Amino acid sequence: MKTIKLNNGVEVPVLGFGTFQITDPEEAEDAVRNAIQAGYRHIDTAQSYGNEGAVGRGIATSGVDRKELFVTTKIWVENTSYKGVMSSFQRSLDRVGLDYMDLLLLHQPYNDTFGAWRALEELQKQGKVRAIGVSNFSVEQAVNLAEFNDVTPQVNQIEINPFQQQTENIQALRDEGISLEAWAPFAEGKHDIFSNPVLTKIGDKYGKSVAQVILRWLVEQDIVVLAKSVKPERMRQNLDIFDFELSDDDKAQIATLNDGESQFFSHADPKMIKWMAGRRLEV
Fold first, then answer.
1. InterPro entries given for it (predicted)?
2. Which of 131, 148, 161, 259 could be disulfide-bonded to 187 (CB atoms 3.0-4.6 Å)?
């Protein structure tokens, strides 16, 4: 598996298995176990997903040594403060059943992000977290955090897909030494992405699916990508992207699909900020 080296030297498997919206405990446990057995070594969860415990059970029953795995979780908005991180992170560790986390992210750029970031820095110094970062932060928010603290985020996990390519933001973050992770690489199926004629034609040329073309497009940009499926055959297919390369013409065609807007919602929308502020976790 190809890896991406972060600004602190930690290496991340470029293909990660995402667990967002896999809420049934048994299904989540089976999915994580099957993903690891299929070949995934990077598992991504979050406090707000409500499945950290199931993810931990899937890891524990996978038959793969924990040291071979890269595991990520994220701090939810209500816990985004110094005290909130320090208390909730231990609960996350206990739920997943691990002694340390490979990557810990602030899930959203709201609440006391500076206090929370100081807590992440401390956890990293203590060896409880190997790498720290953010998710859904704009370039300005990420740079602000970096400039007024000791540690520059190692990662920013943001929406990246053919319809929301974020080319300028990706380069701006890289200029700051921040690596990229892509969530929703398939735009959660919006706009019939799996039947898109541009992506289908490229896939047909290489004998690959639209999903494989998208994953390859991201990997060739050195972007860590999180793909989700509960079907073992699809998991294996999503890993099978290292035997072909996209041409410059392929990439130019994919570039025409960019509309430059989120396929979900704006993180600058006050209504969304209020919704996140009011959302309380059950665990």
1. AKR, Aldo/ket_reductase_CS, NAD(P)_OxRdtase_dom_sf, NADP_OxRdtase_dom
2. 161
